Amino acid sequence: MSPRAERALVIASWCFCGVLVVVAAYGQFAVWAVNAPPLGKTDMGLALFFAISGAWAMVTLFWITPVAAILALVAWLARKGSPLALLIAALASGVPLLLMG
Question: In angstroms, rounded to a whole number, what is the distance separating the alpha carbons of residues 34 and 45?
Answer without folding.
Answer: 10
